[in-house]
Amino acid sequence: MTMLGHEAAWLEWRKAMAGPRMHHAWLLAGKKGLGKSAFALAAARELVAEAGVVQPTGAHPDVFVLSHLPKDDREEKKREAGQEYELARNIKVGQIRDMQRRLATRPTLGARRVIIIDPADDLETSASNALLKSLEEPPAGTHFLLIAHRPARLLPTIRSRCRVLRFAPLPNEAIDRLLVEQCPDTDPATREAAVIAAAGSPGAAMEFVSHDLGPLDALMRRITADGDPQFTLRGKLAEAIGARPDRARIAAALDLARASIARMSQDASRAQLPSIVEAHAELVKLAGQAPTYNFDPGLLVMQIGGLLASAGAASHPADA
């Protein structure tokens, strides 16, 4: 992911590194697709590096990343074979326990090591409680970088022990320049739609283009604008997503649907907001389940379309 827009974050990080005492836990907070993971990896390598010590160009022995593992042994075998595999829904307590056992040893190349948890808002409850113990009594030289797309999902006790580093959405002009540079063959109409749908997230904009979401975006706009009483637009939406969409395309479609409803909320009246908020909440729930649940793609697309239609219907009350 590009490091575009991270100037303020780097300034704050390096100012802290130059200070007398580096805080042991940081919360990298901001919407998905802003490049927080790339920042965390680069910042971690900068923190553990020491003058006169040769640093590896590949994986660093003093930088550990905890993220979603394969769902089960069967999916692990798929990963080992280089095949597409399903991820576990949460980061498990066993992963935290394994990390804590490592913390009983000294760093390999220097005096510091960094634990990156990505995303920390997907820690299961027992994993969060286990992590809290390490945050309360961190071993000497150990630092934590917690990446969170939705910081409110973290335990308040975890948030209170972290210094927050916020990543703000980028202006549309910056995302447009990124697309011109990275995707020069994208037609202007698709690029404009990608910028709007991304809502400040360069990752979302790149995903929009790579998954060719222009036709989906147009259909979703029609559904949220007019509803879909005859189910016609939902059928077209299913055709546009495809009969056998992969998980990445479904995830992109769900993100796009959430962005479509979020746009509606900006101009909605107070009476319209409850239905719009409810539809958005259901899409958030689906987005969380999609990576690990075995949804029938066709039924899932119809469910997405139904939620969009319900939000669209909210803008056209029967007594209007």
Automatic annotation (TrEMBL):
Gene3D superfamilies per the UniProt record, alphabetical: P-loop containing nucleotide triphosphate hydrolases (3.40.50.300)
Stretches assigned to the AAA+ ATPase domain: 22-170
Pfam families according to UniProt: DNA_pol3_delta2
Domain of life: Bacteria
Protein name: DNA polymerase III subunit delta
Source organism phylogeny: Bacteria, Pseudomonadati, Pseudomonadota, Alphaproteobacteria, Sphingomonadales
